[in-house]
Amino acid sequence: SASAEYPEYPGFTLMLVEEFDSPLDLDSDPVWTWSDGGLIEGAARFTKENIKFEDGKMILEMSDTPPSNAQKCSHAEVRTLPYKSRSSGEMRTKHNMFRYGRYE
Fold first, then answer.
1. What is the pTM for the complete model shown?
2. Which residues partner with 57 through β-bridges?
């Protein structure tokens, strides 16, 4: 919203605000999707199952178990990823334009 005020954080520049008026279907949304990647230096692999929507909020869950259905290749990372002992979730745009930042 053009009239809304958003929080400011040191060292963080807000580039995109996307307000969702209805739940997202991350399999069919034209812009947003779930990630199957993971940071090379991180311990978690991202999976669709670790993203939940409850009470109008997106919940990204971290699990101490590896994802059960992850392949070595990642569409999001466009590379092969090493084994990750944990799993979590990440929402991103389909073309990786926006993926890191603050989700509030």
1. 0.71
2. 54
